Every structure is written in C-alpha cells, then in structure tokens.
Amino acid sequence: MTTTINGRTFQITEDTSDHTNLRKHIISQGFDGTIWMGFSARTGRQRKDIQSMIYRTPSGKFVIAVSLTA
Predict the structure, then answer these.
(1) Cα–Cα dist 69/50, whole Å
(2) What is d(CA 33, CA 55) in angstroms, rounded to the nearest whole number?
(3) Number of domains composing the chain
C-alpha cells in the first residue's frame, strides 16, 4: 500500500517481524491501532531514504511513530 506522510510517499506493509520488541513497546505507549513498516525512497531534492514504523490512527490517518533511519 502507498500513503503520503509529511509530503513524502511511503510504501507500507504490515510486516513488523524484524522489530517485534519495538512494536510491543509502541503499543505499550498507547498506540492502539495497526503498526506498519514504511519505506520512502529519496526523490528530487530529498536527501535520504527513510525507513519508519507507521501507526494508523482509528480515524485512518497514518503517522510516523518511530523513524528507524539515523
């Protein structure tokens, strides 16, 4: 699936198997929706690729919960 967050296009999947402890931590902090993995490749003037864990709010909006890119 594709979504746009803060002007960047992310390819997102529900596969969080590599980060199960981080996913549990995010849920324990009060995120009650679905946690997705997202990847945004740099395009145009953007300087780096971004990999993030993305939270889907109950209203359906996607929000970056944790950025896995330094």
Answers:
(1) 6
(2) 7
(3) 1
- pTM value is 0.70
Alpha helices in 1-70 (DSSP H): 20-28
Q: For 15, phi and psi rounded to 5 degrees?
A: -75, 105
Distance between CA 24 and CA 43 in Å, rounded? 32
- What domain range includes position 39? 2-67
Specify the DSSP class assigned to residue 31: -
pLDDT-based confidence at residue 40 (cuts at 50, 70, 90):
very high
3: nearest Cα among 47, 50, 39, 44: 39
C-alpha span between 41 and 50 (Å, rounded): 7
The band of 70, judged by pLDDT with boundaries at 50, 70 and 90, is low
Instruction: In whole angstroms, give the CA distance from residue 55 to residue 31.
Output: 7
